[in-house]
Write a structure and sequence with these properties.
Strand order of the largest sheet: 1-7-6-3-33
Structural class: mainly beta
CATH architecture: 7 Propeller
Largest sheet: 5 strands, antiparallel
Number of domains: 1
Distance between the termini: 43 Å
CATH class: Mainly Beta
Radius of gyration: 21 Å
Bound molecules: fe (ii) ion
Length: about 500
């Protein structure tokens, strides 16, 4: 399997989707062809999904409520889809927006914020044309520009991570983009080797405490694995046929293994040819199993596939192993409903109940070839772990969670720490007017104990129509935030990011 064959299959499908996708489909499903209907319902709780028009923003000094701990200094990078509309067209899917990278800087002078769009080739061309020119993951956009590779469609919109002297803005279907960590200016796509140029690089790399960096990519039934040094040098890689053609968004790493859960999703190529977006062409096969791919970190050719009941999976917290039993936590949902039903409604500004996504815990017994699963019932997403314990035995997980919201819309309005040893939780609710995004655990300088540090993340306050950064004592969430750093504006929701201590 080589790059040429990899891209042949991609190009054939992308071309099929693009060549016949009628732009009227987008108009019909969004109502955009009816000038009397807005592209976006002005629901104040959904404001961040309006998106920006391509402008960069900054604030030198956020309004601080409470007190930012003196030892919490550094930069918090985030990334997410930031632009959803051009002219009379609006994306139908949250995943489609162009990447907007944020830097929240915690200094002795306070907290500043800057957000800058990644100048992908797609963004630059569409900004110039003031219209969408290229197909998107979840919206049927007619191609008006050539699709030369998957990077022609790359939005670089899913996460931001430092690797060596590069800030990477990552998508999952193509290359990572390299940005200047200080200015957020776009340098260009990254090729880990000439052979791997343009290959997919997921937005969920796993970085161990010593900087060892693991990642993967999937596209059209193929899979690529990466092992990189802390400086970003390619140490080894592998390209092979995936056990299924499923969308794989994230993975987990234990001391000795890479673990992938491949949900039972097939791509309906007829639907693509009929003009559907990639998301709408995905078919959930409830009668099929979820394939569990376990890869030896030391030798990527040592791969094993096990099976378990079908769930939809986006995110993992962590994995670790003992006595040849791998423990993996993840967030599960029933099927593609959250992606293909709820997200388009959300993108229209509707306040609809999201399908639940709940914590799940796997034990993969490699000796017996058996998998057991334990579950909890909280509605949550975006799990994170103390970064010092990636691929090691961990006790705590941190999530944004839905807590007793009055309108019952399932919005993630609180935070939760879960102690997986005893099942106890520590929670804080922001009430009915706030949405909470991913929060990352930031270790306290000089500490070694898991969980000792701060939980730092971002949220949106609908009553003020402003975004904020929040800082909690990670060992006492229920005490409420130590500090909120409020911006004088709102910003689009992000997906993921990382904090780097000064
Ligand atoms: Fe993600």
């Amino acid at each position: 399997m080589d790059r040429r064959h990899f891209f042949q299959s991609l190009a054939a499908t992308a071309a099929a989707a693009a060549s016949v996708a009628p732009s009227a489909l987008l108009h019909a499903s969004t109502g955009a062809s009816d000038a009397s209907k807005p592209l976006f319902n002005a629901n104040p709780h959904r404001t961040p999904l309006r998106g920006f028009q391509g402008q960069d923003v900054s604030c030198d000094s956020a309004l601080i409520e409470g007190k930012v701990p003196a030892a919490l200094r550094g930069v918090f990078y985030r990334n997410g889809p930031g632009l959803f509309e051009r002219g009379t067209q609006r994306y139908e899917h949250w995943f489609d927006g162009d990447g907007l990278v944020h830097a929240w800087r915690f200094t002795d002078q306070g907290v500043s914020h800057r957000a800058r769009f990644v100048r992908t080739s797609k963004f630059v061309a569409e900004q110039e044309a003031n219209e969408f020119l290229l197909p998107a993951f979840g919206s049927a956009i007619k191609a008006k520009a050539p699709i030369r590779s998957s990077d022609s469609l790359n939005t670089a919109n899913t996460s931001a991570i430092l690797l060596g002297d590069r800030l990477l803005a990552m998508w999952e279907g193509g290359s990572a983009y390299s940005l200047d960590p200080q200015t957020l200016e776009t340098r260009g796509t990254v090729a880990w080797s000439p052979e791997l140029k343009g290959m997919p690089f997921s937005a969920h790399p796993k970085v161990e405490a010593d900087g060892t960096f693991w990642n993967f990519g999937t596209m059209m039934g193929k899979m690529v694995l990466y092992h990189l040094s802390p400086k970003g040098e390619l140490l080894k890689h592998a390209v092979f046929d995936a056990p299924t053609g499923a969308m794989v968004h994230d993975f987990a790493v234990s001391q000795r293994h890479l673990i992938f859960l491949l949900p039972p999703i097939n791509l309906n190529r007829d639907a693509l040819r009929a003009g559907k977006g990639f998301a709408q062409a995905m078919v959930w096969n409830a009668q099929e199993s979820l394939k569990v791919l376990v890869v030896d970190k030391a030798d990527f050719s040592k791969r094993r596939v096990l099976e378990m009941p079908p769930y939809m999976v986006f995110h993992f917290g962590n994995a670790w192993e003992a006595n040849n039993v791998i423990k993996v936590d993840f967030v599960k949902s029933a099927d593609l409903g959250v992606m293909n039903d709820w997200m388009p409604k959300m993108m229209r500004g509707e306040a609809t109940q999201s399908p639940s996504s709940t914590p799940a815990f796997l034990s993969i017994d490699l000796n017996r070839g058996r998998i057991s699963i334990a579950e909890r019932s909280e509605n949550l997403e975006f799990p994170r772990v103390d970064p010092r314990f990636v691929a090691q035995r961990n006790r705590y997980l941190y999530y944004p969670v839905g807590l007793n919201r009055a309108n019952g819309d399932g919005e993630l309005n609180g935070l939760m720490r879960l102690d997986i040893d005893n099942g106890k939780t520590d929670t804080y609710s922001f009430g009915d007017n706030c949405s909470l995004e991913e929060h990352v655990m930031v270790p306290k300088p000089g500490s070694t104990r898991e969980g000792e540090g701060w939980l730092v993340g971002v949220g949106f306050d609908a009553s003020r129509q402003q975004s904020f950064a929040s800082v909690f004592d990670a060992q006492n969430l229920s005490a409420g935030p130590l500090a909120l750093a409020r911006l004088p504006y709102w910003v689009p929701y992000c997906f993921h990011g990382h904090f780097y201590a000064a």
